[in-house]
Design a protein that fits this description.
single chain; 176 residues; 3-stranded antiparallel sheet; two-stranded parallel ribbon; 7% strand
């Protein structure tokens, strides 16, 4: 998975410009590693029932792209939030894992203050709602929309877990 937005040492981090946020969103949406990941999601089916693989791939790719731009560029720019993941990097595993889960609902503002993560929560909800414009009519129920939102929130939370612990894993692998 691409990782363009993890900050390991937040002590002296400069805020991102609007242009940098849009550039980061484009990297997340169109990184070459995104295509096989989307292929796996399409292969699993992601709740699209009887639809063929090609249609599921297109739906998953569209959702990923819209989500990347809404959660990394559009809403963070509008609400002055920093879309990067700020790694805790110290403390026990449970403390760090718990911190990671909170980052789906707690964001850092461009000024470095803590605030509700409207970019993540709202961006994924907007993405799920907008997907009704291109999903087949049989998939446009409130339940399906909320399921898409929940799945995206889950994936983003799991992604944060990887961002938190990957440096530790990388160090252990390089010692082996």
């Amino acid at each position: 998975m691409p990782n363009y937005g993890t900050v390991e040492d937040a002590a002296s981090v400069q805020p991102l410009s609007v242009g940098q946020k849009f550039h980061m969103a484009a990297l997340y949406a169109f990184d070459p590693y995104v295509y096989p990941f989307v292929g796996v999601i399409a292969g699993v089916g992601g709740g699209q029932g009887e639809h063929g693989y090609g249609e599921r791939y297109a739906l998953a790719f569209a959702g990923n792209t819209v989500s990347s731009f809404l959660t990394v560029a559009v809403l963070p720019s509008a609400f002055h939030q920093d879309p990067r993941y700020f790694q805790l990097g110290k403390g026990g595993v449970w403390r760090r894992a718990g911190y990671t889960v909170t980052r789906s609902v707690v964001a850092r503002s461009d000024a470095g203050k803590t605030m509700f993560n409207v970019s993540e929560v709202g961006g994924n909800l907007l993405t799920a709602g907008l997907s009704n414009a291109y999903y087949p009519s049989s998939d446009r129920s409130v339940a399906n929309t909320l399921t898409r939102w929940g799945m995206q929130m889950m994936w983003d939370t799991l992604s944060n877990e990887l961002k938190e612990f990957w440096p530790d894993i990388r160090r252990k692998i390089s010692k082996a």
